[in-house]
Amino acid sequence: MLALRNKHILLTREEKDARQFAELITAYGGTPYFLPLIKIVFRPVGAEASKKAARADWLVFTSVNGVRSFFSAYQGGPLKAKIAAVGIQTAQEIEQYHYHVSVVPKVQDGEALARMLRTVVGERERVLVVRGQLARPTIIHALEEKSIKVETLTTYDTIMPEEAVEEAKALPNLVFDYVTLTSPSTATHLRTIMETCPIFYRKIACIGPRTNARAIQLGLTPTVTADTYSTDGLVKAMLIEEAHKHERNV
């Protein structure tokens, strides 16, 4: 059954990361449109990355982009530290560099990862948290409360693409059934875009509660939210919403 047939769905993450998401929407009969509202800019942190990683007992990655930016800059030898990842997708990205991931929470969430790390990291071990400039300090604070030595390494910045407004103006003139948001940053940038280029929609589909909270804070409603914090979860949330609409119309 093509549950998203005739549904127009706007994708706001970087297009190269949204392709698989678009394929899944198409498989359910929907029509995806691309409006990238975030751009990831890697920082040149090669020497700093090598120095900090060499003295770490644990490396903690809080996003797929953290993995990509870290390994694009890292210039040291094989990593000896144990590795933790915030979720399955981040762990899979690490494994592409042939490293084993020791800790992955079932729920892709910084607080869940922090709780797991507090049970496995020794008091004398050093932790290096690899992250973007917008990451919350949840993991850092949770470990420091146990007097664990924590360092941070900011390897990338999340910004709004300069061409986003022009690309928004070039979108087809229609009401999108869903605008998908995959991070609080996409919500912030969507609101910024809409100040100069109105985008009409019926629902905002959020990847998780933090993104949903940011969307509501910005007045981007009504919303649906994924139970599992992934693009697969987003599709599932839209399918459930469509099923509920069908039930209401029966």
TrEMBL record:
UniProt KW Lyase keyword: yes
UniProt EC number: 4.2.1.75
Pathway: Porphyrin-containing compound metabolism; protoporphyrin-IX biosynthesis; coproporphyrinogen-III from 5-aminolevulinate: step 3/4
InterPro entries for the chain: 4pyrrol_syn_uPrphyn_synt_sf, 4pyrrol_synth_uPrphyn_synth, UROS/Hem4
Domain Tetrapyrrole biosynthesis uroporphyrinogen III synthase, residue spans: 20-235
SUPFAM superfamilies, alphabetized: HemD-like (SSF69618)
Transmembrane regions listed in the UniProt entry: none
Alphabetical list of Pfam families matching this protein: HEM4
Catalyzed reactions per annotation: hydroxymethylbilane = uroporphyrinogen III + H2O
The keyword Lyase is assigned to this record: yes
Keyword annotations: Lyase, Porphyrin biosynthesis
Family designation: Belongs to the uroporphyrinogen-III synthase family.
Function, as annotated: Catalyzes cyclization of the linear tetrapyrrole, hydroxymethylbilane, to the macrocyclic uroporphyrinogen III.
UniProt name for this protein: Uroporphyrinogen-III synthase
Species in which this protein is naturally found: Shouchella hunanensis
Species classification: Bacteria, Bacillati, Bacillota, Bacilli, Bacillales
